[in-house]
Amino acid sequence: MSDNATPTTPVKTTGLHVGEAGPGCKKVDPIIIADGVKRTFGGLTAVDVAHVEIPRGAITALIGPNGAGKTTFFNLLTGFDKPDEGKWEFDGRSLAHVPAYRVARMGLIRTFQLTKALGLLTVLDNMKLGAKGQSGENLFRSVFPFFWRSQEDEIEAKAKEILARFKLDAKQEDYAASLSGGQRKLLEMARALMSDPTLVMLDEPMAGVNPALTQSLLDHILDLKSQGMTVLFVEHDMHMVRHIADWVIVMAEGKIVAEGDPHEVMRDPAVIDAYLGAHHDTDLGDDDDPESVEHIHAMKELIDDEQ
Amino acid sequence: MESTQSVRPHSRGRWLILLGLLVSALTLSGIAASPAMADEGGTDSQAEEFEYFFSGNVKYNDEPLEGVSIAVSGNGFEAETETDENGQWTLGVPEKEAYELTLDEDTLPEGVIVEDGQSTIDAEFGLTKRKSVNFFLGEGQRVTTDYGAQVLIRVVNGLNFGLLLALAAIGLSLIFGTTGLSNFAHAEMITFGALMMLTFSNMLGLPVWLAILIAIALSAGLGWTLDAGLWKPLRKRGVGLIPLMIVSIGLSLALRYTFQFFYGGSTRQLPGATLPREIVLGPILLSWIDVASMATSVIVLLAVAYFLLRTRIGKATRAVSDNSPLAAASGIDVDRVIRIVWVLGGALAGLSGILWAYFRPGVSWDMGFQILLLVFAAVTLGGLGTAFGALVGSLIVGLFIEVSTLWLPSDMKYVGALLVLILVLLFRPQGILGRRERIG
Amino acid sequence: MIDWIQIFSNAAQELISPTTAAYALAALGLAIHFGYTGLLNFGQAGFMALGAYGFAISTLTFGFPVWASVLVGIGASIVFALILGIPTLRLRADYLAIVTIAAAEILRLIFTTNTFDDVTGSASGLQGYKGGIAAMNPIPDGTYGFGPFTYNAYDWWIRILGWTVVILAALFTWSIMRSPWGRVIKGIREDEDAVRALGKNVYSYKMQSLILGGVFGTLAGMIFIMPRAVVPANYQTSLTFFIYAILLLGGAATILGPIVGSMIFWVLLSFFSGFMARAVEAGWLPFMTQVQAGQLRFILVGVAIMLLVVFRPQGIFGNKKELSFVR
């Protein structure tokens, strides 16, 4: 377990891919394989992924400019949205027509861009809700506590143990609504762990998090890997991506445009194009979308760093 | 034709009985209401000779009709008779209760039909033991067997009804689109227009056109007042959408009974509501009121369309409807747009109320509430929050209700429309013109 | 002079009246829907109508015994909940509101129409279904009680029956809401996507909640018709709104709230209308008629709903801590 006080340099997992690194390249041990997944909204193609594999046991970052279809791709993978066509599988099992809750039961747990802490439940109840296979969640058995009491005690012990690890144990009786934005992100991640997932998908885990908490969040993500879980996350913070990701997948306009080791990918002209392409000729100061300006600055900074 | 008016009060009477029941049933007293077998215990219902009689005279163009079949049913009793050479008929019944009398239209001569589809009449005894029941037969142009003509008549009625629904529905839809509020008090905004019209024409004796203008202006003022005094402060407090919806329910209840408090429970007619139907278009008979009502609706709807599509403020309204934060970010004064929408919605609802008062006909304290669900159905059918969807939805609801009376008993005509609403939600939840929602 | 004793005694009677019990149970069902699960059911009047008509028609038309008539009512409400839930529980919350309110009106219109007069008694309704319940009465004939609470054997019997059902339902609700099932249900109220992402079949839970609260409404409908006749005009949308007023008064996500809310609601309403009627009679309010005085309380209920939602959304029994987060 890592120590928050002294940030350590994470150990990168390497040798994930087979052959040349590039869009849609084969992985040694893929946990997710998507093939020809396409999703359109009206006339707009949000996601059009020809082939992609997510490596097992590693931290993979999914990056790309705004509107690249990252969150939509997340929703498709987790059953929260249905693609128009395509095949995708998790751990060798097809996920087509599998509803979101079944995807979650298979061990693929996600978080949301806008945190979904359940405000008027206590922090502890939030955690307990994450546990799988609770017999007390059946209406008929729920009336008789002796069916579920002992399981409930086990779940509570586990919840408290994880909360302590996330330093939320002092808050366990508070409403989740009283937590700060960063604490909610932590709670959401901690809650995901209650079900012992094999793959954790984090949608912008750093968005809106107080800088004081970022290091702790990063360490928790690295922790997931050290416990044998696979992590796939969407992120805008390039420093973070470079810091913890073992593999980076770049999306633009719904397609996978580049893949590879974080340091390699940053040098890929396709990536620079994806971020700067549309803005080559415009004066950055006049851009009306503040978020994309921020991305471009972040990219420029990173590219400068690399060179 | 003058007799048509004496038939209509029957159906109105039934509404009043219902309302009376509502009011009395909601009172605290838990006394079991047992109207039947009240004081007529001695009557022997098996006897051939009855104590109570329905009777009537069937005439067409002052010529008595012989051999027309009339049936009575109700309270577990059924009987049938035919008219004699003078067109007269009598039916004895065992109890002094309400019965249903039906004239078999197949036994009428070719080309004759009962007016307004009133071949079944609910009749109840007054103080006497005899009650005369009259069926009013239609003009020569109305052909009983011509199904197509029947459909055409219903279609015209349905259009008229649909258009007046659309006036209310567009306001409701715009309010929903810009604020997210499902406004249950829209019903009372409809009623308000009709009540103001009644106040200024019947009570204060102003000319009709002036009374209408004042009523619409006051309705617009009501919209302004509701937004300024209630909804804007609540928005500023950050009250959620579902609590807001419940607030509108409370407001609806409070306003409705305030209306009843001041105007009483009776139904009153606006001037001109009893104009004869003297415009003949093929099989269709219309009064000037019907024509004026439809023309007004169409003109106002076109004006609203122009407002939404062509004017700056209309475009701003649609932008706020589409994406309120984005509209605010691009410099649109969202609060001002919402205020305008409330004023417009109030005015449209008021006008719709006046037209509804002529269509029913009659002004009563809960007339808006009677069609509120239909307005909601129209808005939902068309796609929540789209103004043009509301128009299409209203026309569908109006047409469906009137045309369905060809097969459904008239007291069930709303059932069909509400069923269609549920079915549409089942197969096309985004409504007819709505867009699919994007998740995540 | 005003007969204060009479007014207070009438108001006190509402404390344990079967009507209060029926509203309390219906509000408890709505608490499961709205307070715990976040489902906007505006058709509770429809569920109550199904209980009333299901019981009365089974007894009168088919001659079923009491237990079978009760089961028919419950079965009808389960089917009704499925019909409402299947199309709408996957959609946004306000669709359920519109569909439930429409479905309840459809039921009322079907019970009112002359077309089915033989079975439903149309607008004048049904009566004469109380024999079975009365026959089960273990209390010997006579008059019992003290002060305002003096009733005959049948009146005591329906009060005991009604409140027993309410207490059992409250205990049942209390036990399921503190179980893991209740945790999932409350989670759905907060954010159903989050709960779905944790592997719970949200659709199925919402359906269970809709059915359970609906069955409570149905039982409430049966209690409701014990002291009166079945009249379709009782099952207007206003009935649902009254139940919402009670729920908001007591606290939407509480067990005791709906019950105490119903008692307070009816006692206050009875007191208010009794007082107004007497005040008009005594000439204290010369500008008002008896009828108008009767209408005032509906206005009062409407205003009370608005004020409660805005100023005390958690109700009387709601958790104080919640207030800072409930919006």
Please write out the topology.
The complex is a heterotrimer of chains A (307), B (440) and C (327).
Chain A: E1 30-41, E2 44-55, E3 59-63, H1 70-77, E4 85-90, E5 93-94, H2 100-105, E6 108-110, H3 123-129, H4 139-142, H5 149-165, H6 181-193, E7 199-203, H7 211-226, E8 230-234, H8 238-244, E9 247-252, E10 255-260, H9 262-267, H10 269-276, H11 290-306
Parallel strand pairs in A: 3-8, 3-9, 6-7, 7-8
Antiparallel strand pairs in A: 1-2, 1-4, 4-5, 9-10
Helix pairs in contact in A: 3-6
Chain B: H1 4-25, E1 52-57, E2 59-60, E3 63-64, E4 69-74, E5 77-82, E6 88-93, E7 99-103, E8 120-123, E9 130-132, H2 147-179, H3 186-203, H4 208-237, H5 241-263, E10 279-281, E11 284-286, H6 288-310, H7 312-322, H8 324-329, H9 334-359, H10 367-382, H11 387-404, H12 413-427
Parallel strand pairs in B: 1-9
Antiparallel strand pairs in B: 1-6, 2-3, 4-5, 4-7, 7-8, 10-11
Helix pairs in contact in B: 2-6, 2-7, 2-9, 2-10, 2-11, 3-4, 3-5, 3-9, 3-10, 4-9, 6-7, 6-9, 7-9, 10-11, 10-12, 11-12
Chain C: H1 4-13, H2 18-37, H3 44-60, H4 66-88, H5 93-112, H6 117-120, H7 131-135, E1 143-146, E2 149-152, H8 153-177, H9 180-190, H10 192-197, H11 202-224, H12 237-250, H13 256-281, H14 290-311
Antiparallel strand pairs in C: 1-2
Helix pairs in contact in C: 1-13, 2-8, 2-9, 2-11, 2-12, 2-13, 3-4, 3-5, 3-11, 4-11, 8-11, 12-13, 12-14, 13-14
Sheet with most strands: strand arrangement of chain A: 6-7-8-3-9-10
Main β-sheet of chain A, in a few words? 6 strands, mixed
Percent in helix of chain C: 55-70%
Low-confidence stretches of chain C: none
Q: Specify the overall morphology of chain A.
A: globular
Question: How much helix is in the residues of chain A?
Answer: 25-40%
- Portion in strands of chain C: under 5%
List unreliable stretches of 5+ residues of chain A: 1-6, 279-288
User: Biggest interface in this structure?
Assistant: B-C, 66 and 70 residues
- Give me the CATH architecture of the largest domain in chain A, please: 3-Layer(aba) Sandwich
